[in-house]
Specification:
Chain B: This is Molybdopterin synthase sulfur carrier subunit. The complex is a heterodimer of chains A (about 150) and B (about 80). With about 150 residues, chain A is of the alpha+beta class. Chain A has four helices and eight strands. In chain A, the strands form two sheets. A four-stranded mixed beta sheet of chain A has the order 1-4-6-2, sandwiched between helices. The chains are: A alpha+beta (about 150), B alpha+beta (about 80). The interface between A and B is medium-sized, with 29 and 16 residues.
Chain lengths: ~150, ~80
């Protein structure tokens, strides 16, 4: 299983990406997807996403390989957008395919939890009044990642 | 040694990357932070609270006692906020 990983400014197409994971095969019994969107908190004009080219892809690939080691994945896609995104815009897509639903659903949740704390992206919020501020890391994101640690 | 800065660390330092040649006494990430802090008021401001800084050595996350060497690519940035 070779994960498809893309960092891009352009939007992604959930339908096309889903078809890409299942086209020409009949062994996929479950395809799970997560789409993260730019939430329009009061007065937010745009979210600007920055990343560390090279390290980002490496970090996501490592996380995807970890997922493939824990669940019997038949396919995995992670697409993360960067640049300036307006409220409502899709930011991140995680797709996982497996023979059965539990593996697809669990690995999809694992991947998005890990993406939040283990891949080098940074968000800056731009407000309608012209101010901007860097989003701070959240303790609950660390907790969400920690729940996947081996017991 | 190539040093990269991201997010507000980049804004405070005032540049995205620089080539530096610290003395041999600089052996690890913490030592490099201390040495870089003395380079300019911007550096000092960026590294004023090292607990808020994360680092990567050759594109892998690295702690304060991770060794650094002349040909390494070292990056400093705030805790990540993607997803």
């Amino acid at each position: 299983m070779t994960p498809r990983i893309a960092i891009q400014e352009a939007p992604f197409d959930l339908g096309a990406e889903s078809a890409r994971l299942t086209a020409g095969r009949t062994d996929v019994g479950g395809l799970a997807s997560f789409v993260g969107l730019c939430r329009a908190d009061d007065g937010l004009a745009a979210m600007v996403l920055e990343h560390y080219p090279g390290m980002t892809e490496r970090a996501i690939d490592r996380i995807a390989q970890e997922a493939a080691g824990r669940w019997p994945l038949l396919g995995c896609t992670v697409i993360h957008r960067v640049g300036r995104l307006p409220p409502g815009a899709p930011i991140v897509l995680v797709l996982t395919a497996s023979s059965h639903r539990a593996a697809a659903l669990e690995s999809c949740a694992f991947l998005i939890d890990w993406l939040k704390t283990g891949a080098p992206f940074w968000k800056r919020e731009e407000w309608a009044d012209g101010t901007a501020r860097w989003v701070e890391a959240k303790a609950e994101d660390d907790a969400a990642t920690a729940r996947w640690a081996p017991a | 040694m190539r040093v990269l800065y991201f997010a507000w660390v980049r804004q405070r330092v005032g540049m995205a990357e620089e080539e530096v040649a610290p003395p041999e006494t600089v052996r690890d990430v913490a030592g490099l932070i201390a040495w870089l802090s003395a380079r300019s008021p911007g550096h000092a401001s960026a590294f004023a609270n090292p607990r808020t800084i994360r680092a990567a050595v050759n594109q892998d996350f690295a702690g304060p006692d991770h060794p650094v060497a002349a040909n390494d690519e070292i990056a400093f940035f705030p805790p990540v906020t993607g997803g």
